[in-house]
Design brief:
Layout lengths: L1 H17 L7 H12 L9 H7 L5 H5 L3 H9 L8 H37 L5 H15 L4
Helix pairs in contact: 1-5, 3-6, 6-7
Amino acid sequence: MKKQGLLLSAILATGLLSGCATPLNSAQDAELKSYRAKGLEVKEKNPGTGAALGILPGGGSFYTRNYGLGVVNLLLWPISVCWDPVSGYDGAESINYYATKADVSKKMNKEMAALDTQLQTKTISADEYVLKKSQIERKYSADL
């Protein structure tokens, strides 16, 4: 009996220390939706696949790179089916959000650098620079 209690304590501690896939907050969710609408989303992971794999022992967590939680969910299966599909979905959305943010930033910086070069080489006027800079900022902003 004492061994079972110790094992359960170890499993729970591992679960708490491994971290769960946290859902996006409302601002991040709105930002991702805006990038989707503009066709800028990077889809590294499919949230539906993450949720579906959550039915398997630890599948949703392993799919979304939450390996510690995946081990805990594997050990707690079948009861982990209550939360792992949600964790798999949220984890995939989170991965996509951060991949999108990095990609958008990279693309915007590349276009801005090219624009700066055009201004320095006097290929465009200062007025054209300001106009094009504004267009680039709008293109990559999360606002619709």
